[in-house]
Amino acid sequence: MTNDGPRKIRWGILGYARIARTELIPAIRRAAGAEFFAIASREDAKLAEVRTAFPGVTRTYRDYEELLCDKDVDAIYLPLPNALHREWAIRAAAHGKPVLCEKPLALTAAECREMVAAATAHGVMLMEAFMYRYTDRMRQVIDVLRSGVLGEVRQINSTFRFFLSNPASIKLKPELGGGALYDVGCYPINFIGLVVDEAARRPAGTGPAPESVAAEAVRASGVDVGFSALLRYPGGLIAALHCGFEAHKRIGSEIIGTKGILEVPDTFLDHAGALTLTTGEEKREIPVALSDRYRLEVEDFSAALAGRRAPLLGLAESLRNAEVLDRLLAAGGGVR
User: Fold this and answer.
1) What average pLDDT score do residues 255-266 get?
2) First vs last C-alpha separation in the chain
3) Burial class, 112, CB count within 10 angstroms (exposed 0-12 / middle 13-18 / buried 19+)
């Protein structure tokens, strides 16, 4: 404690990735109870850019391990390429550092289990950074599901795609964990899991797994650039997901029940808008407020550390997501 209240959680960042530069560092600086304290990058030019763009940063390192050894760093944000998540989350845990890790948590369920085991063994928090779950849009979706107005959920459709114009993007490099399913398909997988949990009235991450999956992928540069899948759940619920880098931007979902339909445009974004609820012949809009998803994510993780409580997203969800990813990749011919 200080004279001004509880000390802020001091964040260290492994790598000056675009998402760190454009989203997470600004979010940490906006967040209550958090401080952008340290960053590591193997490129001097990037560290110089950090010091210019974010002059309040206290420490910069040329080596990731040196940052993890800094006893003044309270939490780690890990935005490194997907293929490096397992290694550096486990190293951070060994240094006693809690980790907010970018999605997907890892490339396989086996890697995820290793990360969870390391976090558990060292008594540190680990969370997958699905920032969209911190939006008013998701709060409204959950409220509708819990109201029962949709009846029994029979179908879920969810899409996240955009046109990737940069041929040098790490999203197209198989050795770094590239591919549309890992990059954007993991969002519909998480959303479908959320809906299935709510429909089954089960705690997050404990709802039924798919009974069967089918998938088709379009491949280029050694990765999937388009991916579509069907997942069949117990009781006859069928979910469809689509993702890709090869077509115009499209982000949206719908939940279809025996009594109604909920349309969720811009499912994974945080701007203001509206959901559309149809029951019988009646159609009405449910307003969605503007949210600051990255700031809220940082504040929740920081408050969870300070209060020794669980954050919003638990590891049961992340493990299930990874298991579904494994099955979809196998079904789509992309086993790693």
Assistant:
1) 98
2) 48
3) buried
Whether the full predicted model's pTM is greater than 0.90, yes or no, is yes
Question: How many other CB atoms are found less than 10 A from the CB of residue 258?
Answer: 9
- Run of H or E residues at 49: helix 44-53
Domains and CATH numbers, the chain: 9-130 (3.40.50.720), 132-296+319-331 (3.30.360.10)
Per-residue pLDDT of 151-175, as tens digits, reads 999 999 999 999 999 999 999 999 9
Partners of 12 in the beta sheet? 38, 76
307 contact partners, CB below 8 Å, separation of at least 6:
none
Place 335 in a pLDDT band, splitting at 50, 70 and 90: low
Beta-carbon contacts of 242 under 8 Å, excluding residues fewer than 6 positions away, are 158, 159, 160, 161, 188, 227, 228, 250
> Which neighbouring-strand residues pair with 262?
255, 277
Pull the structure tokens for residue 17: 């990735």
* Distance from C-alpha of 141 to C-alpha of 153, rounded to nearest angstrom: 13
Sign of CA dihedral 86, 88, 90, 96: negative
Which residues make Cβ contacts (< 8 Å) with residue 117, sequence separation at least 6? Answer: none
DSSP H/E element including 51: helix 44-53
